[in-house]
Amino acid sequence: MDARPSTCGGTYMRDPVTVMAPERLGAMHQNRISFVRSLIRKMAQQKWQVTKHDWQLSAEGFGHVIYKLTTLNHIYHLVIFCDEIADEDRNDRVIAEKWDVTFALVYGDVDVDLLSRLRTNVPLQEAGRNPNKVLVLARANKSVRVFEHLVSHLAKGQQPNAKELAEVGYILRTTAVYGNGKFGIADFGWLETTEDFNQSFSAQMCAVYILREFSLDWVHYLARQQGGDKAASLDLGLQRYLGIGNATGLGMAPYLINHPCVVDKWLSSRESALTAVLNAVVEVHKLAPLQHLLQKGLCHLEQIITINENQDDLNNTAITELHDLLTKLETLLIQSQTWSELVEYTSRYSLETQEIILSCLMEIYPALVDNYETKMNCDESLNLPSGKRIEDLLAVLESSYRWAIETDFKQPENNYWFWYRSQDKEEPRLGVRGEEPGEDRELPLDIGRQANRLYHALLICKPNMQLAEFLVLQPQYRAISRRVWTLGNKQMGEIQMNVLHKKSLPMHLLRCKLAVLGATKFDPRSERWVRVTFFQGAPLLNELHDGEWLFPLLPSNTLNQAVVEGEVS
Amino acid sequence: MIVSHNELVSVVNKAFLGMRRSCGEADVIANMVAGLQIVGLNGIGHFNNAAQFLTAEKDSPVDIFITNEGGLVVDLHGCSLACHLPVVIDYALEKMVGKKHLTIELKNCHNRWLAYNELVKLAAKGLACKAQWNNGSSPQNTLYILNQGCVSPELFLSDHLDLAGRTLHDMTIQLSVKNFDIAGYSAGYTKHIKSSSLNNAQRDTWYEGISVDEDEWEVLKRTATALLVENSEQSVKGAGELV
User: Cα dist. A42→A304, A373, A535, A537, B237 in Å?
Assistant: First the structure.
């Protein structure tokens, strides 16, 4: 394990070169301070109440439903519209214009006028205009296969086939969950001053969590409509096993590049929490919970069904390695003074395995980790302080941007892609430089190349020249100078990735953000699209608890049935 | 109509990026516009005015001269102040080290209202600031005073002042470690926009959203589309094909 002295407490923290490497970020898993976990803990600890407030669905399941959320401080409503759409209109991309379900989380009451306005605008999503009482605007499509399978079985009083559920893991799949002022809704700047949703993405995650409850209520409602008294309720274990799916594409990648302070804060807080664990003395009584979680992680990987061969290989490798680790774990614990020594040993394993181990270690130390859940917000401003000279900025570049300044951007493979926004709903896309139109409107996401150019421009100046003077002469470098100075002086800094490189994988960026949010079951559908689940394995609304729910598993009764039938490998 | 802060910043950012300028920073300019709009001073309108000329303007650094008294004279070559003010302020702050006062004469520049937000930042650095400019249309005379520790400036407007050496494309900014005499400097101005009303307007936008002129908003959104690339069969695949 790479390590360098941390600036606080005389402990040791992993180097940003290790932590911010794209391949490692692209192997991250949910952990205790992922946003879904923090939210559920808060909901449980503060005893938030969610009730079915209004249920106006036709026998076919179309219409609207409102859930009421009561917190210690306020009330909110999740307003959900269910519309009938043609199968050919069901598209996960941002360019879609119709969805099975559209919904909005609203601050305060929803009167007739507001409901009417929402009815007109929420189903239009980006094309609509909503009041700033709306905190979250989102949409979802059915997994038609799971939806129909569940309704038809439950209507007949039967439980569904576990295999059908295991392959998908959700009933509804969100394709965009907008917050922070998008399309006129409330800014996070305001939410941040409130008690309930002052943490990044907490309002969005809450809306998705209530949607998960709706997805279960919806199939039960339709099963009763079809089966009457014969209809059964879904096995509670299977209800917990079903989360909300999410399809994420390239559009998420620019977020991580355009919000570098946010990314630094997320990864720095996670790393600080992890460092607290790794520096703790190994305690024998932690062996059993750690074994349990590693075993759970292993089973979770075994149950994941993905069509992506690379991810499948990674999962299989991790399964083998976790088996290996479990056979040695007790001996390794006896031989280790601190958890960092155990982690040092596991550096021989794949990144996927290493990241599972780190999530498990964080899980068994809530007292060391949970404090960091409130340290995920940050000031995003990029500033250059007064009094700095060329040599000062060069020093930052040479210490924190080696990944950029050592790249030869004259080589075509280092400049292969360009990023742009399409006229088609402003969808971010990648084009091949020199081959595809749009290069003249390239997005400035080329941070590595910009840092490299800045470095070479600085090198030809006198080292003691004032930076302010340099920027008067070459103002085109002010933006990247502000960024380099700010990020270069942060704990983790930039994601160390040249996104123009021919072999760069935006998937790593997507996975990093999704893991911070708390996604599970990573199922890449291409190099630029991934399906995941949220709240899979989470407690249901009527049993909220702040305990562990890492790595969703099929409930053991249905698992046994599936194994007997040869349905789960 | 009402827009959000993030929405406004995002659209201005895209609009400026679409102009493909070397000088000027999209995020800074977006905050200049938003900073002005949230206090009700028509940031979008000022940006839309600027946008009409930005793509045709000279895209090169300013020239800075130091006067015998140690002040700065900055020639912006007829360009928008939005693209150059941050660099000039950085430079001025360096030159102010060890001094109690510094005068910056900005020559041949446009869109001076967009300086509002950059000058507000100076208060956080412990400096007081006074800015003055004249215009060919109403309001013809503007005075901006932001004393130390204040969140918003006192603004004074007039159409009737006969100022000596009146020029229509310049701006004078004075920085000082001492507060300016607001009453003394504002004598003769006919309209006063109090800092308290600017503070209130800013506070209200957090709850109510930012009020914008619908036509101005549409113009801004149209400008922001210059960055977008035409759709094509090839480009549709550029988002990654679903399997």
Answer: 29, 10, 15, 17, 41
What is the distance in angstroms between the Cα of B199 and the nearest Cα belonging to chain A? 16
Number of domains in chain B: 1
pLDDT band at B165 (very low <50, low <70, confident <90, very high): low
Rounded distance, CA A316 to CA B56, Å?
A: 58
- Residue A254, burial from CB neighbour count under 10 angstroms (0-12, 13-18, 19+): middle
- Cα separation of B11 and A182, whole Å? 11
Sign of CA dihedral A86, A92, A97, A99: positive
Whether B243 is covered by a domain: the verdict is no
- Best mutation target among B84, B90, B206 (most A Cβ atoms within 10 Å) is B90
Q: Is the dihedral of CA B155, B159, B162, B166 positive or negative?
A: positive
Question: pLDDT class for A557, splitting at 50, 70, 90?
Answer: low
C-alpha dihedral sign at B215, B218, B224, B229:
negative
A interface test, pick of B6, B80, B125 with most A CB neighbours within 10 Å: B6
Domain assignment of residue B156, yes or no: yes
- A-chain residues near B86 (CB < 8 A): 478
Please report residues of B whose CB lies closer than 8 A to that of A386: 90, 93-94, 97
pLDDT in tens, A427-452: 899 999 999 999 999 999 999 999 99
> For residue range B177-232, what is the model confidence (pLDDT) as tens digits?
999 999 999 999 999 999 999 999 999 988 889 999 999 999 999 999 999 999 88
Question: Is B239 a member of any domain?
Answer: no
Residue B237 lies in a domain: no
Q: What was the pLDDT predicted at A263? A: 97
CATH of the domain at B206: 3.30.1370
Instruction: Answer left, alpha or beta for residue A118, where phi above 0 means left and psi between -120 and 50 means alpha.
Output: alpha
Percent of chain A with pLDDT over 70: 96
What's the pTM?
Answer: 0.94
Distance between CA A420 and CA A438 in Å, rounded?
7
